[in-house]
Design a protein that fits this description.
Layout lengths: L8 H13 L1 H26 L9 H4 L1 E6 L4 E6 L4 H6 L4 E4 L6 E4 L11 H5 L2 E5 L1 E5 L8 H19 L2
Antiparallel strand pairs: 1-2, 3-6, 4-5
Length: 164
C-alpha cells in the first residue's frame, strides 16, 4: 500500500480546499480508478489461467475493491492465501503430504524430471510418494502490479480530464 503523509501545512490547507471545492469529481475519479484496478487485476488472472489445469476462480473472486475515508481513499486487496505466491513466484521447497496417503496428480501435467512409477503412469496418474524433497518452485505471474501501473495511469488521465 502506498501512503502519502503531508507535513507542509500550507500545502495541506490548499489541498484540503481543493478537495472541498471539487469533492464530488475527486471522489468519482478515485472510485473509477479503484474499480479499474480491480477489473484489470481480474482480467490479468483470467488471461494467465486460460490454459491452466486448475480454474476454480477463487483468486479472481477474492480480489475486492473498497472505498473508505469518506470516498477519498480506494484500495484493492487480493484476500486469497496464495496471492503473494502467484504474484511473486516461489523458491524451490519441499512438499509433504497432509491428509492423503501419497502425493499424486495427472501424469500429463507432471513436472519434468520427477520419477513416476510404471503402475501409476499406466493409470494416467503420477504418484510421487509421501514427500517431494525439492519442488522446483513456481515462476512469478504478476497480476496486481501491472494492474496497479495501469490504474495509476488511468487516474492521472482522469484527473487531467476533470480538472483542466
Amino acid at each position: 500500500m502506498i501512503k502519502l503523509t503531508i507535513i507542509d501545512k500550507d500545502f495541506k490547507n490548499k489541498m484540503d480546499q481543493f478537495i472541498r471545492k471539487n469533492d464530488k469529481q475527486f471522489k468519482t475519479v478515485i472510485n473509477d480508478s479503484t474499480n479499474q484496478l480491480a477489473k484489470r487485476a481480474k482480467l490479468n488472472i483470467r488471461n494467465q489461467t486460460m490454459r491452466s489445469k486448475v480454474k476454480s476462480g477463487n483468486l479472481i473472486r477474492r480480489i475486492q475493491p473498497s472505498i473508505f475515508n469518506n470516498g477519498l481513499t480506494g484500495e484493492v486487496v487480493s484476500k486469497a492465501s496464495y496471492s503473494e505466491a502467484v504474484e511473486k513466484g516461489t523458491r524451490p521447497h519441499p512438499i509433504s503430504i497432509r491428509n492423503k496417503k501419497v502425493l499424486a496428480g495427472p501424469y500429463r501435467g507432471r513436472p519434468a524430471g520427477w520419477i513416476v512409477s510404471k503402475t501409476s503412469r499406466a493409470m494416467g496418474f503420477a504418484t510421487y510418494g509421501k514427500r517431494v524433497p525439492r519442488h522446483p518452485g513456481t515462476k512469478a505471474r504478476p497480476f496486481m502490479y501491472p494492474a496497479w501501473k495501469y490504474a495509476v495511469d488511468y487516474f492521472g488521465k482522469q484527473m487531467e480530464a476533470v480538472f483542466k
